[in-house]
Automatic annotation (TrEMBL):
Heme binds at C435. GO terms for biological process: lipid metabolic process. One of its GO terms (molecular function) is heme binding. This is CYTOCHROME P450. Its cofactor is heme. It comes from the Eukaryota. It comes from Salix purpurea (Purple osier willow). InterPro entries: Cyt_P450 (IPR001128), Cyt_P450_CS (IPR017972), Cyt_P450_E_grp-I (IPR002401), Cyt_P450_sf (IPR036396).
Length: 501
């Protein structure tokens, strides 16, 4: 017993000393004593005096940097809004800038070995498999059908009910419910029913939201050791995270077991498709949960920003309606996929909204080896290197002197939509990790936008509202987007079957 007690004492003593040593090394690398103006403003939070959001302060610093790059010594983070640097990081020197172990550790409990949390061969395998599935015509038709069904059976009835009662509706909450229903059906073949008329409490959605939020908050800790020790002791936010992930796991495992029992022949969802080639249930869970995270909040965030901007630009709403009528004529149905391809102004308006308010505001990598960016910035090995999509959309040297203005016309040449360089417009990322779900996300945004614009007038409760973002993986507006819906006279019909995509 004395030997066991002595061993336990030595073990825990070593653990504590190692933890203290790790924290000291971490603090030394961050240089918290840095006396530069940027680091002092960050540590003292004095930036809050002039800026509503941290991303706006970052934008200010990057706009005033000659190179479009800023070094936050206290964070060990080099942040850039320079397109040449971005291309260097995510294409030219792709292998030197992986997601990295620090990022994987933050999301490891939630995403496991999913595609957004791994590098190397595991990423390549999932990327190849996902590219094959998401690129097929059948899966796109399936997704389009799911979107239309959710609009026809839930979104339109909900908005009509709110309009009839003249109730204030949080459009951000509606979009989050809409996208969660869709991505669950698309990923799992599960319908959580979050957008039913009563707007029910959805336990799975709450657990997933909690797991996402708490995982993101790990990045705000003074040191990774803080949340790691809390996880070891199972206390505070780490205990909440563990409970939330447990609920997510139970549902995912239940869906996998059920599908194995009933068979996969008549199922089109991603889980069923992946199960034909993967037998590891934990791996399946990680892959599908990753798609759930990517497809839920990003679309909802993009739609929320789009309708907030439209509330300030009624002329854009009128232009979209005119284009819709020009393409569809007197038809009372929502446009088909092929008809949407002809709506260049709508496409431009959505891209312009995403330029100013990207759902994911920044993306970080970790340098494997010492490197020098095209603007001359030295990046030491192990340094976090971040490109800031939110700031990039507001850089005068990138978008011109009118970069802060909402102008869909900047995307049009002779009335035809012309895409921008992906290293300049990085909303869907670029290089080898470019977003595989880009087209599906844009189709969902366009279809929802057309359904609402054609059938309703949307009046923001506070037209002068300035978005205040909640820290997290995606841009979520604190307080939501309260609106009053006004139903237009003509009725709406929805395509039950999509044309070929």
């Amino acid at each position: 017993m004395d030997f066991v007690a002595a061993f336990s004492f030595l073990f825990f003593g070593f653990t504590i000393l190692f933890s203290v040593f790790s924290i000291l090394i971490y603090i030394w690398r961050l240089k918290p004593w840095c006396n530069c103006d940027v680091c002092k403003a960050y540590l003292s939070s004095s930036w809050r005096k002039d800026f509503t959001n941290l991303c706006d302060w970052y934008t200010h610093l990057l706009r005033n940097s000659k190179t479009g790059t800023v070094h936050f010594h206290v964070l060990g983070n080099i942040i850039t809004a320079n397109p040449e640097n971005v291309e260097h990081m995510i294409k030219t020197k792709f292998d030197n800038y992986p997601k990295g172990k620090p990022f994987s550790a933050l999301l490891g409990d939630l995403l496991g070995r999913g595609i957004f949390n791994v590098d190397g061969d595991s990423w390549k395998f999932q990327r190849k498999m996902a590219s094959f599935e998401l690129g097929s015509v059948s899966i796109r038709m399936y997704a389009f059908d799911l979107i239309n069904t959710e609009i026809r059976e839930r979104l339109i009835p909900l908005l009509s009910s709110a309009a009839a009662r003249q109730e204030v509706l949080d459009l951000q909450d509606v979009f989050r419910r809409f996208s969660f229903d869709n991505i669950c059906k698309f990923s799992f073949g599960l319908d959580p029913g979050c957008l039913e008329l009563s707007l029910p409490v959805c336990d799975f959605a709450l657990a997933f939201d909690s797991a996402s939020k708490l995982s993101a908050e790990r990045a705000l800790a003074a040191s990774p050791m803080v949340w790691k020790i809390k996880r070891l002791l199972n206390i505070g936010s780490e205990r909440e995270l563990k409970e939330a992930i447990k609920k997510v796991n139970e549902l995912a495992e239940g869906m996998i077991n059920q599908k194995r029992k009933v068979g996969l022949s008549n199922s089109n969802d991603l889980l069923s498709r992946f199960m034909t080639s993967i037998s590891d249930d934990r791996y399946l869970r990680d892959i599908v949960i990753s798609f759930l995270l990517a497809g839920r909040d990003t679309v909802a965030s993009g739609l929320t920003s789009f309708f907030w901007i439209l509330s300030q630009h009624p002329e854009v709403v009128s232009a979209i309606r005119e284009e819709m009528e020009k393409v569809t004529g007197s038809s009372q149905e929502l446009p088909s996929y092929q008809e949407m391809l002809q709506m260049h102004y709508l496409n431009a308006a959505i891209h312009e909204s995403l330029r100013l308010y990207p759902p994911v505001q920044f993306d970080s990598k970790f340098a494997q080896e010492d490197d020098i960016l095209p603007d001359g910035t030295f990046v030491p090995r192990g340094t976090r290197a971040t490109y800031h999509q939110y700031a990039m959309g507001r850089m005068e040297q990138v978008w011109g002197p009118d970069c802060l203005d909402f102008k869909p016309e900047r995307w049009l040449k002779k009335g035809v939509f012309v895409p921008e360089n992906p290293f300049k417009f990085t909303v869907f990322h670029a290089g080898p990790r470019i977003c595989l779900g880009k087209e599906l996300a844009l189709v969902e945004m366009k279809t929802v936008a057309l359904a609402i614009i054609r059938g309703f007038n949307t009046v923001a409760e506070d037209p002068d509202q300035v978005p205040r973002f909640i820290p997290g993986f995606t841009a979520t507006v604190r307080g939501g987007l309260p609106v009053v819906m006004q139903e237009k006279e003509r009725s709406l019909k929805i395509h039950q079957q999509p044309t070929s995509m």
